[in-house]
C-alpha cells in the first residue's frame, strides 16, 4: 500500500528530501553560514544536507510540472528534514532494523539499473568515483526501510475501515464502477497425521513410527481413525486429522508442496517439516470464488488511500508538538 510520506521519502531518498507542510522562518540557503541550520531534539540539520535536499526537492516538483519559488522550496525542504529527523529519532529509540536480505535486494535492483550484475562491482564503481559512496547509499536504504516500518507501526493502526464503510462505498455510484472480475483460488480439503520430533522423541524414532503408520495405511487402515489414535497434533486429532479447506500460503512450504502433489482421495508418503513427520490426505479439491472479496479489498484500498494522508498529518503534528525544534536565523 502506497502512502504519501513514504512515497516521497523513497522518491528522493538519496538526497534526504520529501514533501510535507511548509515551516515558517526557514533560513535561506544563500544567506546561511556554513554549519548547523537547525536542531531537532538531539539531531542537527547541516547546511550541506539542506542544500542537497533542496536541490532534490526542486527537481521533484519540476518533474511533476509544479512551479515553486526558491523560498517555497526551501520552506518545504526544512519542514521535510525536520520531519525526517523526528522519525529517525523514533526509529533509533525503537530499534527498527530492516531485513538484511531486503536491503541487499534493493541494492541489487539499483545496481542492475546501473548495468551491474553483482554488488561487488557496483561498490567498486561507486567508491572509485567518490570514496564512501556505497556505504552512504546502503545507509540511506536502511534508513528508508526503517521509516517504512515505522509508518506501518505508527500510522497504519490509526486507519480503521469498517465493513459498513466498505459496503457503503461499494453501493455508491463510484464503488459500482469497480469492475467485477472473477477471482478463483484453489483449495484442498486436507487431513494429516503428525508425529512430533521433540525432547521426548528423536527424529529417528519419529520416522520409524510414521513409517509404521504409513504401512498400515497402505494395508487399508482408515486414515481418520489412525489420525485420531496416533497423531501428535491434538487439535486436529480430535477431528480425525481434519484440517479443513486449505489455501496457498497457509501451511509451511514442505506441507504445501506435498499437498499439491497428492491427488484427491489419496494420501502422501511420509515427509518432514519443522514440526516433525507427517502423512497427509487430500479429501477433495475445489476452486473458491473470491470475486466479491476482491472487490471489497479494492474498496478498502481506495478508502485507505483517502484516510492515510490525514492520519499521517495528525501523527506528524503530534511528533512536532512533543519535540524540541530550533531553527537558527
From TrEMBL:
Stretch forming the signal peptide: 1-24
Alphabetically ordered keywords of this record: Chaperone, Isomerase, Periplasm, Rotamase, Signal
InterPro entries xrefs: OMP_Chaperone_SurA, PPIase_dom_sf, PPIase_PpiC, SurA_N, Trigger_fact/SurA_dom_sf
Molecular function via GO: peptidyl-prolyl cis-trans isomerase activity
Lyase as UniProt keyword: no
Alphabetical list of PROSITE patterns matching this protein: PPIC_PPIASE_2
Coiled coil: none
Pfam families: Rotamase, SurA_N
Location of the PpiC domain: 185-284
SUPFAM superfamilies for the chain: FKBP-like, Triger factor/SurA peptide-binding domain-like
EC number: 5.2.1.8
Name this protein carries in UniProt: Peptidyl-prolyl cis-trans isomerase surA
Organism (species): Moraxella lacunata
Underlying gene: surA
Amino acid at each position: 500500500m502506497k502512502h504519501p510520506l513514504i512515497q516521497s521519502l523513497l522518491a528522493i531518498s538519496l538526497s534526504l528530501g520529501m514533501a510535507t507542510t511548509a515551516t515558517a522562518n526557514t533560513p535561506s540557503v544563500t544567506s546561511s553560514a556554513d554549519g548547523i541550520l537547525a536542531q531537532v531534539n538531539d539531531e542537527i540539520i547541516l547546511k550541506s544536507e539542506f542544500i542537497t535536499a533542496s536541490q532534490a526537492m526542486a527537481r521533484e516538483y519540476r518533474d511533476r510540472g509544479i512551479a515553486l519559488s526558491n523560498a517555497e522550496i526551501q520552506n518545504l525542504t526544512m519542514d521535510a528534514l525536520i520531519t525526517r529527523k523526528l522519525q529517525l529519532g523514533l526509529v533509533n529509540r525503537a530499534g527498527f532494523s530492516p531485513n538484511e536480505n531486503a536491503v541487499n535486494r534493493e541494492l541489487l535492483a539499483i545496481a542492475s539499473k546501473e548495468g551491474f550484475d553483482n554488488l561487488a562491482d557496483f561498490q567498486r564503481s561507486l567508491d572509485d568515483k567518490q570514496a564512501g559512496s556505497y556505504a552512504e547509499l546502503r545507509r540511506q536504504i536502511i534508513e528508508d526501510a526503517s521509516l517504512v516500518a515505522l509508518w506501518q507501526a505508527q500510522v497504519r493502526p490509526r486507519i480503521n475501515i469498517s465493513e459498513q464503510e466498505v459496503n457503503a462505498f461499494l453501493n455508491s455510484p463510484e464503488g459500482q464502477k469497480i469492475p467485477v472480475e472473477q477471482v478463483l483460488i484453489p483449495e484442498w480439503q486436507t487431513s494429516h497425521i503428525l508425529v512430533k520430533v521433540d525432547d521426548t522423541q528423536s527424529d529417528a524414532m519419529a520416522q520409524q513410527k510414521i513409517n509404521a503408520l504409513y504401512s498400515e495405511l497402505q494395508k487399508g487402515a482408515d486414515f481418520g481413525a489412525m489420525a485420531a489414535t496416533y497423531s501428535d497434533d491434538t487439535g486436529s486429532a480430535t477431528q480425525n486429522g481434519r484440517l479443513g479447506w486449505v489455501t496457498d500460503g497457509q501451511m509451511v512450504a514442505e506441507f504445501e508442496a506435498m499437498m499439491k502433489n497428492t491427488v484427491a482421495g489419496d494420501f502422501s508418503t511420509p515427509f518432514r517439516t519443522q514440526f516433525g513427520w507427517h502423512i497427509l490426505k487430500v479429501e477433495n479439491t475445489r476452486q473458491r470464488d473470491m470475486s466479491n472479496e476482491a472487490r471489497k479489498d479494492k474498496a478498502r484500498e481506495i478508502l485507505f488511500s483517502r484516510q492515510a494522508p490525514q492520519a499521517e498529518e495528525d501523527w506528524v503534528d503530534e511528533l512536532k508538538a512533543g519535540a524540541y525544534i530550533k531553527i537558527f536565523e
